[in-house]
Amino acid sequence: MDSPLAEAVGGRSASVLRKHLDMHTVGDLLRHLPRRYETMNDLDKVDPRDLSVGDQVNMIAEVRSARGERKFRRGGGKQIHITTMAVAAGDLELSVTFFNQPWRVRTMPVGSRAFFAGKLEKFRDRWQLGSPRAMRISTGDDETDPDDESIKLPPVTPIYPATKDVQTWELLAAVRQTLDVFDDPIDPVPQEVRERHGLIDLGRALRDIHLPASLDAARPAMRRLTWDEALGLQLALQGERLNAATRPAPACPRTDDGLAAAFDARLPFELTGGQRRVGAELAEALAGTTPLNRLLQGDVGSGKTVVALRAMLQVVDAGRQAVLLAPTEVLAAQHARSLRAMLGPLGRSGEPAGLFGDDGDEPVELDTDERATRIVLLTGSLAAKERKQALLDVQSGVAGIVVGTHAVIQEKVGFADLGLLVVDEQHRFGVRQRDELRSRPGETAPHLLVMTATPIPRTVALTVYGDLENSVLDELPAGRKPIDTHAVPGGRPKWLARVWERVREEVDAGHQAYVVCPRIGDDGPASDEEEGGGADGEERRPPLAALEVAELLAAGPLAGLRLEVLHGRLPAEEKDDVMRRFAAGDVDVLVSTTVIEVGVDVPNATVIVVLDAERFGVSQLHQLRGRVGRGDTASSCFLVSDLEGPSMERLQRIAEITDGFAMADLDLELRNEGDVLGTEQAGRRKTLRFLSVRRHLDEITEAREVARALLADDPTLAHHPRLAGLVRGVVGEEGASFLDKL
User: Fold this and answer.
1) Do 136 and 272 fall within a single domain?
2) Do 328 and 404 belong to one domain?
3) Dist. CA 255–CA 320, nearest whole Å
4) Closest CA to 575 of 402, 373, 389, 331
5) Which of the residue ranges 188-202, 363-377, 386-400 would you say has the lowest mean pLDDT?
6) 120-126: long-range contacts (C-beta < 8 A, 24 or more apart)?
7) Per-residue DSSP letters for 417-462?
8) C-beta separation of 400 from 373 below 8 A
9) CA–CA gap between residue 55 and residue 58 (Å, rounded)
10) 311: left (phi > 0), else alpha (psi -120 to 50), else beta?
11) Fewer CB within 10 A of the terminal residue: the chain, N end or C end?
């Protein structure tokens, strides 16, 4: 599998495969799996309704007619030869044109079959194949023709993911040539594991996946290769988990009369059953020296911040510090304000007990408490003086709770005694980022609590966060009302006018509103986030921009209301000022980009309008919708799109779903799995070749148990070197770094 590809297919073919498909070894080629199989009977199964203009296709079709003629180029140029063919595959009929290939009429006569590849186009309502390439399928008894290029197909023909430069028949030829000289590898998966789980040998799997005798023979081959990938991934995840446990965590037992108990006593509301249950789990884990390594997930508004704060206070009671890491400065500042508001006098350590009023006579008393701690905000845009003071508070231990962005990860930020790291919105951080603070030198490593407000399907949790224990908050606090969501066709003026009327009605009732756009404007970057693409793929106008929309609303349907704009290019102080004034009720309508997607909590905001909603992902829309409905007043969300068809149908499905976990399943259904398992989220290879997080829950679960058992006896896989190679093949060297640490 590690042999250079040139040894199997020759230097010329190996060079083409390396250049266009990044294949270097025999293993790279043999792990390039067919995306489907065809037999000659499959010619009748092609349905034009499944195809779109612009699709790059590889198909087997029959030649129905063929003619060649010579023509002069326009303007009196030299002659060219044009071969025109009509070909058919099932209900699909295509016109195919070859230039200066006169032998095509002879070598691909009427009635012959061939592979055709190219880009689907339409001219006068007839399908055409642009820039076509073709390879005739040999029947085995064809007469020899020096111009004939043909290929004899196996009974079940693999159709490979290809490019315009490397066609599926060229990959088939390379695979055949390779398998002819391929020695079956020594199987990396122990025989006992293979027998227990009904897995065929790896060598047989590689042969049957590419050249199966029947479709039935391909199924156990695919299961074996899928299982290998699941095992490699789970070994990496469980290895990271073991690596995190090699150093003890600082014990932080709960006290009966400390800061945490005082906070519980002053809570103005009753904790939900889920908050109490998860809180008890965290309290027990923090009390021990086995590092807490947990994912806390819950729907928007389920109260994760309160759960995290109670855990942080338990750590502060033990004389240690806690860090809350947020992905953006807006969210970090919002968290700092929220924590200070929840703690009140318990978060004002070191502040003066009383201040003089404006007239200089009347003192304004500030509540303080002898058990209080200090909350410090640390971001990259702090002024030099503020940053210096914040760093001193962190390093001296005066700050019990530190809230910050990735600036906190920088090595020059020192802690007196870090006991707990809380990572909010984990999907915005790579695994390596979250491990930076935990891997610093020292006798202990801090506990880790990872939070996400985007509920995760179980298969994704096992695949992406398999190194973490999982806690779920599955109920909302009392008094929360469902958010009334509507998909609005923006191309219908009366419908859109009614949306702006609803915004005015809410503001007139004393409430506030958000308007979200996918772009900032003024020819700057597309957005604070990577711009979404939409479902339909046609030529479209540029996405709406917050700066431009704000001007139009202020001069039109929302004239007279207090509008402000918020986006990621604003200076940090200005962003914070806008959010403060919006939270205080001094702004009626906040026109924003996705910078408000997570964490922003303004209970008085009761309506949100998302423009060009089809450009946002499912989880993004659910997060944006969660910015309203945070008080006890009924709230509304309007998802506006100019597009009809699939885009509007998708928005309507989103509008009908209120449960975040059902929304997560829809997200997984609609998105490319490579996005779900992206490097930003998982910290490892962007796509899995075989494993589907939607279809392979059983394989993932089985592999997880096998991985745990193997690593319990052999933590570095020293006695299973080929399994170590499997891990590296699945997750890469960085993902397999645990093998060198334990």
Assistant:
1) no
2) yes
3) 14
4) 331
5) 363-377
6) 120/51, 120/52, 120/53, 120/54, 120/55, 120/56, 120/57, 121/53, 121/54, 122/53, 123/95, 126/93, 126/95
7) -EEEEEEESGGGS-HHHHHHHHTSSSS---EEEEEESS---HHHHH
8) yes
9) 10
10) alpha
11) C
Tell which phi-psi region holds residue 522, choosing left (phi > 0), alpha (psi between -120 and 50) or beta. left
φ, ψ at 123 (rounded to 5°):
-140, 120
Domain range enclosing 312: 259-352+369-473
CATH assignment of the domain containing 97? 2.40.50.140
273 and 130 in a common domain: no
> What's the pLDDT tens digit per position in 229-252?
999 989 988 888 887 777 899 999
Q: In what order do the strands lie in the sheet with 418-424?
A: 374-378, 399-404, 321-325, 418-424, 447-452, 293-298, 469-473
pLDDT of residue 455: 67
| Judgement on whether residues 519 and 456 belong to the same structural domain of the protein | no
Angle at 14 between CA 12 and CA 18, to 5 degrees: 120
Report the length, in residues, of the chain.
Answer: 742
In a domain, 200, yes or no: no
Could you tell me if 490 and 590 lie in one domain? Answer: yes
- Closest by Cα among 391, 587, 409 to 507: 587
CA distances from 84 to 66, 91, 103, 108 (A): 6, 20, 12, 11
461 φ/ψ sector (left φ>0, alpha ψ -120 to 50, else beta): alpha
Lookup result for tokens 């002053």: 266
Q: Indicate the pTM of the whole model.
A: 0.69
| CB distance 248 to 307 below 8 Å | no
- Tokens representing 377 are 């905000």
493 and 617 share one domain:
yes
Residue type, 74: R
Question: Could you read off the pLDDT of 140-198 as tens digits, one per residue?
Answer: 655 545 555 677 878 888 888 888 788 888 999 999 999 999 999 899 999 999 999 99
The answer to whether residue 230 sits within a structural domain is: no
Determine contact, residues 132/94, Cβ cutoff 8 Å. no
Q: What is the pLDDT of residues 410-423, one digit of tens each?
A: 767 889 899 999 98
DSSP string for residues in 6-71: HHHH-HHHHHHHHHHH---BHHHHHTS--SEEE-GGGGGG--GGG--TT-EEEEEEEEEEEEEEEE
